[in-house]
Amino acid sequence: MPKPCDLQINIDGQQIFLLKEKVISKYCGGLKKILNHRKRRGHVKQELGIRINDFPGGPEGFELVSMFCYNNGKIQITEANVCLLHCCAVYLGMTEEVISNNLLQQTETFLQGIFNWKWSDTLVILKSCEGFYSYADGYGLLEKIISVLAKFVQNSDSNLLMSSPSASSSSSSPETNSAKRFSFSSKKTTPEKIKSTLSRKAWWFDDLATLPPNIIEKLVQAIGAYKADNKDLVLTRFLLHYLKLATQTREVNCSNNGEYAALAETATYGVISVGKKTFSCRGLFWVLRIVSKFGLGRDVRTELEKLIGGVIEQATLDDLLVSGHDMGVYYDINLVIRLVRVFVDMNGSDDGMCLQKLKRVGRLIDKYLREISPDQNLKISKFLGVAECLPDSARDCYDGVYKAIDIYLQSHPIITFEERSRLCRCLNYTKLTFEASKDLAKNPRIPPRVAMQALISQQSKVPTVDYVTESPRVKPSQLVLYNEKTRNSFTKEKKEMELNIDKMQWGVIELAKLHKEMNGHVSKLIMLDPPRTSSSPRFC
């Protein structure tokens, strides 16, 4: 009759193994020490039981160890189980000191051939560590496996940069690439070829995209391209691919995840190292959208924004519409202000090329203003920050700014009179077209004093003959600007413009007269300044 099991081992509270103490102790030095220690303390044999928490691989790992022990120290070792067996052997002290050719020795012998393994085998062994990464890392397995992967990646980088753009990298494999490793060494790598390369994925991108960020971080470190040391173009492209997939397929708190943040920083440094020679303006905004989700450090973000700001004249409206939900607004207004300021600092000279770029950005910012104006959470200070971040020379016409102001006022009907006047300070009235000035003067959302100032500015665009200049204080009856003789000399177009201006000016005069008859409430809305001695309204 076989001897009954005399040892109970509880693994992680999930499964209890009934074993023979003699069989297990023959190979597991760690368990043997625990059992001997308990016997010396007076525990009876029937009560021998051990609970092991956080065992490598859980019950599955211990079951493999039991099979090894009950099979006289033999078990089939494969790429899929070698890492688990190795970690279990180290954990349980299954060394040569306990018995010759123990489990630890057998796994180490198997792992000696890892540098000759195929890519697929190396990937299998790495993914097998998923349930016990901490043990595999602590016992040195991850370092060994990742160093093998790093060599594959580095070799593929050389192949990808030297191969012809027409070749399909996604269909390549480490085996086919090894045959072509030195076949293009005489070809020169040009920026155009690099751009074409970066638009394609290396064959290993999707294979590594499913790995956790701590493994990818170790891989980057093994390649020697971590954070500011990253000058690897293909690795940079992979990291951007990886981070983009992480935001789409994984539930991660990116802003608080240090592992992802380190990868985002590494990718950004890689982009900065090649700059605008490799990435277009739209490509740089694409990078910014990806890495911003992972909480970039201030220094590396500043460098990336300098790179984008230097080419922002190539941007489109869609490029500028970066989400700002985490800041309480629909779009990231502060980002655009910073980028435009960088651009202005780099293109501040008055030469023709810089002025042309400034005007291009001016038209872009006017479109951006109209896009962000309906945002209910957009503050006036932010609107003005965008409108005023460019010098006056960037705009030949301010009609776009006026349209944006009008949209803002329509979307924010409850703002005060003072705030409306403040909002209009970004307008250059002399650069408004006549049609815009006419619309502004009739606009009930625009403060009357702003409308008057716009009208006065329009007068300078009409030939000024026979102005009444005898007295600085002009009465309403003296605001007729031209005599009949002069008017007859104007073209038909100028006559029509003058007539419209006269009508609007008399409308302003009527406002001044009506002011004397208004009650105190309306007086507060229109006359915000202290009483003046002048008989005519002051244009501010």
From TrEMBL:
Residues 164-184 are annotated as: Disordered. The keyword Transport does not apply. Residues 164-179 have a biased composition (Low complexity). Keywords: Ubl conjugation pathway. Transmembrane segments: none annotated. The keyword Cell inner membrane does not apply. InterPro entries: NPH3/RPT2-like, NPH3_dom, SKP1/BTB/POZ_sf. Signal peptide: none annotated. Residues 202-461 form the NPH3 domain. Pathway: Protein modification; protein ubiquitination. Belongs to the NPH3 family. PANTHER family: OS12G0117600 PROTEIN (PTHR32370). This is NPH3 domain-containing protein. It comes from Vigna mungo (Black gram).
